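Pilot study result, target chain (344 residues):
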Amino acid sequence: MRYGYWMPIFGGWLRNVEAENMAPTWEYNKKLAQRSEQIGYSLSLVAELNLNDIKGVEAPSLDAWSTAAALTAVTDKLEYMVAVRPTFHNPALLAKQAANIDHIGGGGRLSLNVVSSWWQNEAKMYGVHFEQHDDRYARTSEWLDVLSNLWERDHWSFQGKYYHVENTVLQPKPKTLPRPILYAGGESETAKNLIAAKCDAYVMHGDPPEKIGERIADMRKRREKLGLPPMKFGMAAYSIVRNTEDEAKKELSRITDVKASSAGYKNYQEWLAGTQLEQRVSLEDYSVSNRGLRSGLIGTPSKVLDQVAAFEKVGIDLFLLQCSPQLEEMERFAEHVIQPMSHS
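Predicted structure:
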């Protein structure tokens, strides 16, 4: 099992708690990254949005790609899974940029989380064309073809509906062979078919182990039908580890006291309208992003350890944790979960 976490570039994960004691600054994120690789974390997901969808559009947020490049240079082991939205990036230029960061990290420390954009208002603000759901995935499919081929060969040409490159040379190639890992998530049929065909790993919103096991089994079947090697599987989760159940429940009550008037609520409603999720999302899910509470990593150390073991049994390879405040809670999780699991 690998343990990763979301880099708090938005200043937190709780839409209805104003101050989470983790400012969206370079200084805080650098401190967190350097400490995390010392205590057992192997990966950090750096999300990409130009607006802050957690704290509201007026709140600051960090740029994903420049932050990831800088963090790579000041850490030694941590892998950065950087989110990338095809509508915001030319694939040939992004392939060049990603290969460069891979070299900065010495190889094996850069991966991509390919995300099809959902936020129409953000695209409008930043002058980017916004497409409907299936059209976004058609673009993503071409985008992945260009990216992967330019990482693997030179003097390559492509003429598609969305992209056109001619006799392209990209040097240096990524140090990671055969290529940096491509992660992606999505619950629509269009998304799952594309991910099974063109990505290396599938990342999911939080849900109980039995539901996650069903999704993993489904993706494995899709992959096998294509004659491709097995995928890796990751999942978002929000963690609350406390000495007693009562303490954990008290913290859960604090963070799920939803205020529908909070700054991020309008953005959340737009996200729901722009996605095709398998399940209805509750107001509790609103308070913590990515359905993180449904993973059930909440309670005493022994309870959380049992839940981690249940996810490992159904096929999860990677947790992508969110917690608040991030640094203090990740220290607690490392002490009570990561370290005991590594010695078991």
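One observation from the pilot: The chain has one domain: 2-343. A full batch analysis is planned for the follow-on phase.
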